[in-house]
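Format notes (please read before filing issues)

Several people have asked whether sequences and C-alpha cells are stored in separate files. They are not. Every record keeps both together, in the order shown below: the sequence lines, then the C-alpha cell lines. Line labels are part of the format and must not be stripped during preprocessing.
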Amino acid sequence: MSAALENSAAAREQTARIARLNDLARQAMGVACTPVATAGFRSLPDADQSQVRELIETFDAFTDDNDPHGERDFGSIYQLRDRSWTTERPRSQEDECERVFWKLDYYDRNLEFASEDAANPAITRRVLTIMLSDEY
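Then the structure lines:
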C-alpha cells in the first residue's frame, strides 16, 4: 500500500474515532464532556432547555452542510411556531420561532489549550456549548 493510501486510511480512521467520541460526548453530557450553555440559551424556559438537550443527545441529522469534516461536532435544533422542537430545518423562516446551535470543541486536559489529538480521550476534554443562533 502506498504511503498516500496509508495516510488516507489513517485519517479516515481518526475522523471516525473522533465522530464516535463526539457521539458518546453528546449522549453522556456531563460525563463524557463538559456542557456549557450561554446566557441566551439559559433564558429559555426549563422545559425548552430540557427538550433541546434531549434532541442534542439523540441528534443524527448530520449532512454535508452541517458536518463537512465527518466529526459530528455541530448541529442545529429548531423551534417551530407551534413551540415544538425539531432537528429538521423548517421549510420557511416564517415557520421557525427559535434556532439553537450546539458545538463540540476539543481541549487539553486542563482546558487551557486546544487538544493535540482530538481522537485521543486520554489527552482531550470535550466541551459542548449550547447557544442561541444569534449568539454564535
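For reference, the curators noted about this record: The helical segments are 3-27, 39-42, 46-57. The first strand starts at residue 34 and ends at 37.
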